[in-house]
Amino acid sequence: MPLTPLPFGTFRRLWRNVALMLVLLFFLLLALWLSLPRWLPMLAEWALPTDVHLRLDGRPGWRQGALRLPAFSLTRGGCLWLRSDGGDATRRAGDSRK
To answer: Which domain of life does this protein belong to (predicted)?
Structure first.
């Protein structure tokens, strides 16, 4: 039984649907990134013990080739366990064979 070629409109619809899915995925990831300070502490409280709380003072950002991390704190009851004033995560050029 010979294969019959698909009409051109089928490929156009396929590419349109793929492009639409990629655009929707981009906007979903963007919304998750921008709302990170709201949902990450709730997710952390689900995984941490009941009296441990995580607080973020902002959202991560990208600046001059570095991932800028927000300040955060981890408390238990009224006691401060861990505090960070933020920081950068960068990649440095170098020899990876060492």
So the answer is: Bacteria
Quick check: 37 and 56 in contact, CB under 8 A? yes
Is the predicted pLDDT of residue 77 greater than 90, yes or no?
no
Tell me the β-bridge partners of 72.
Answer: 56, 84
Both structure tokens of 37: 């300070």
State the distance between the two ends of the chain, measured CA to CA, in whole angstroms: 59
Place of tokens 């300070």: 37
pTM: 0.60
Extract the tokens encoding 77.
């009851």
The phi and psi torsions of 37 (rounded to 5 degrees) equal: -65, -20
Query: What is the predicted pLDDT for the residue at 26?
Result: 97
